[in-house]
Specification:
Elements (H helix, E strand, L loop, with lengths): L27 E4 L7 E4 L8 H5 L5 E3 L5 E3 L9 H5 L6 E2 L9 E2 L5 H5 L5 H5 L5 E5 H14 L19 E5 L38 E10 L3 E3 L4
Bound molecules: iron/sulfur cluster (3 copies).
Amino acid sequence: MPTQGPEAYEDDAVFDAPRRPDSTALTVVNRLEAERPFFLKAQCMHCDHPACASSCIVGAFTKEESGAVVWDTSKCIGCRYCIVACPFQVPAFEWGKALEPRIMKCDFCAPRQRDGELPACVERCPVEALTFGPRDELLRVAHERIKRSPGKYNPRVYGELEVGGTSWMYLSARELAGEALPKLGTRPAPGVSESIQHGIFAYFVPPVALYSLLGFLMWDAKNGPREGGE
Ligand code: SF4
Ligand code: SF4
Ligand code: SF4
């Protein structure tokens, strides 16, 4: 949960240039259009076949049943292969930390989820732009909305197929691939250490009932910006 009051987030200057998550900001919100308030929240996508996990030679990463891709800092040897392997350029290294620098990224609020709580960003979003639930159910809802209002949404849900599917997905008024988010194929991204693992490499097989998070990014040309449910 944020430790600062709302006034700490009122400086719009942060939107002047696009940002990426880093070791101190595990999620960032970027403004996609200067004239119109159209925003995208970026963080770890919690891939169903995480390249960070397949690149990590010490097996520090785990994909949990909740959908969260988490990692064990006590196993980490600081090789930083996961940084290179991630197709979304998410894992960040604590370069400024002299003692025991760690890899940092959004952990899908895994500890909260284990306690039966929602990810903090979902709980805190005042316009319900983020929805958490079983992946299949979120995709069903997203495609129903696209079918019901074809002119309102881009027909593709970003993350449904990218790199084999992700646990964070976006339903948006416009195409995000190649614009706000990378344009990627449907095959899982290989880990950079695949070639040095001499055959022991295998893609992670996720559990069947993954949970996911769907972000709604809408721009209604007539009525202005909309985020959240209908
Ligand atoms: S977005 Fe990157 S860090 Fe996150 S699970 Fe996928 S490969 Fe790993
Ligand atoms: S830096 Fe990344 S790939 Fe290397 S050991 Fe640590 S978690 Fe694994
Ligand atoms: S899931 Fe948790 S760690 Fe990830 S962006 Fe949301 S609040 Fe931050």
